[in-house]
Fold this protein.
Amino acid sequence: MLAVVSPPARSNSFNLVARGDVLRPPGAPCPLRQGPARVEQGVDVLRAAYLRLRDRMRLFVTTTRDFDEAELEEVKRGQEQLYVDVSSKLMPDDFASDLRKLRLSAECRACARRTGCPGCYVAEPGNAFAEDDARLRARLRELRGAVLDVGCGEAPYAEEFEAAASAGCLSYVGVEPEASRVALLRARHAWARYVVGTLESAAESGSLGRGGYQHILFMRSFNHLPDPAQSLALAARWLAPEGRLWLVDNVAFGLLRSREQAHRAEQGPGQLEHFRNDSAAEAAALGSSLGWRVAERWDIGPSTSNQWLLSLERP
């Protein structure tokens, strides 16, 4: 088996840090409409955003160099994946409770000066993460047959398979590189089987059995793959002829944070684990180049969280 040379790891998020306030009482017109001079001098509008508060607009600015202009444009204006961090953690680990999704205000959408302004964002009334996660969980509960979960991590979706497994309608194998994590999962889920390693090492050791899996899952592990084309090609060898590959992952996003929050996060022990921030469209293009057909696809948009889904099957 050829060794995989990993590309450089990168971040999947960037901080926009609070810089200052512009007073705006309730019902008052936007103070930025007087022209570009009203926007803080020297601020790159693509690297900044205003957050609408009760009686003011707070400016947040990013100095990130991990994301180029095209990526920032896509995060901010294309997919509108900006969030305000309402936690006290170094890094959010429960997006549904730690983050509030933002959307560009209706006033900004209709403004003729929109392209020359950072834009003012307001918090969404719902919880996009919880809604998208509930939709995904409902879809996973429908799966039947042999399931292989690649890079299962802490197996956050394992409970969705337990009822079908207990009824004899489903068998589950999770593959995870961290041995200590696998030990905990084995103790927690007696109905499941867990293998220590990567997809490549598990395949080479024979731990995957004879194959014939109806479903092979890459649940928020796709963008962690050093060589996704190689991994998908390898997974195909263990997939039943009528089986499906399921890819679920997240695109990049921006976090609006206070100076204290950003400082804590930047001084923390967090490690870069992503190799890409691919979207469903980019994953679908890769699948198509490998001869797969898209069976199901959930894209990212202004009204969704940053989590997408792609299901691939043989043509």
